[in-house]
Design goal:
- This protein is α/β, with parallel strands linked by helices and 253 residues long.
- Helices cover 49% and strands 11% of the residues.
- The N and C termini lie far apart (56 Å).
């Protein structure tokens, strides 16, 4: 029997609240810029943080921030209508990132990485302008463990994401409150709530990174044999034993 919308949202809210407590993600007086692209993850993050805010023992504020990279066909008005309909404070920011990418990107370099760097810079600037000390992003449990495997298999590093990280500019803290939430729950929630999910409209939209797609498939296959595979991989990120690793920066051999 399908899980009810209320039960699903309560589970997502509980897991998000646990992450906030475990990693001290939100504190008294925080003003948080929530990146809202129009995707399922960012919509879910915004709604769950707002639900938690109403009953939180500490006071904090949310400002939804949408960045339009300038891709033809990007339906930012859909995002704005949703934010306005639900009473969120928000900022819609148009940029010329598309033009910059087309002119400056080196042949063969990652389109998504270049776009992400430009978007991150705009997000930091907006956080300053809006008086926000924290920036919340919608990365979920699957993003964390896929990044862990990608780095091990293709880069040769033992690293993933952090739920709380000082931004490169030193002025903001980036938080990822959905670290304990599985992507399948976010998909189900966005469908149940009929969230107006839109495509970013970039030239590579819909073309899934083949390496990340491989990680998704690998995890899905392993889950048949190891049902708790996602929780186990996430748990490994918080259960590090430096004595049993090879990094000479971590210990003297």
């Amino acid at each position: 029997m399908p899980e009810s919308d209320d039960n699903l949202f309560r589970r997502i809210r509980k897991l998000t609240g646990r992450a906030i407590g475990d990693f001290n993600l939100i504190e008294e007086g925080d003003r948080i810029a929530v990146g809202v692209s129009g995707g399922k993850d960012s919509y879910t993050l915004l709604h769950v943080l707002e639900a938690l805010r109403r009953k939180a023992p500490v006071r904090y504020e949310l400002v939804a921030v949408n960045i339009d990279a300038g891709y033809p066909g990007y339906r930012k008005e859909v995002v704005e209508e949703h934010l306005r309909e639900h009473g969120f404070s928000y900022r819609m920011q148009s940029t010329n990132s598309y033009q910059v990418i087309e002119e400056k990107r080196r042949p063969g370099s990652s389109y998504c990485s270049f776009c992400a760097r430009l978007r991150r810079g705009v997000l930091y600037s907006l956080a300053d302008e809006l008086g926000c000390n924290k920036i919340a992003l919608g990365h979920h449990l699957d993003d964390f463990i896929e990044t862990l495997l990608l780095n091990q298999f293709y880069v040769g590093t033992l690293a993933a994401m952090s739920p709380k990280l000082q931004a490169d500019n030193g002025r903001h803290t980036v938080i990822r409150p959905l670290v304990y939430v599985e992507e399948q729950d976010i998909i189900a929630f966005s469908r149940d709530r009929r969230l107006p999910v839109i495509c970013c409209a970039c030239p590579v939209c819909g073309v899934i990174d083949q390496k990340r797609k491989r990680m998704k498939r690998l995890i899905r296959e392993l889950k048949e044999e190891i049902p708790q595979i996602r929780q186990s991989l996430l748990g490994a990120l918080g259960n590090v034993h430096p004595r049993h690793l090879l990094d000479k920066e971590l210990r003297e051999f």
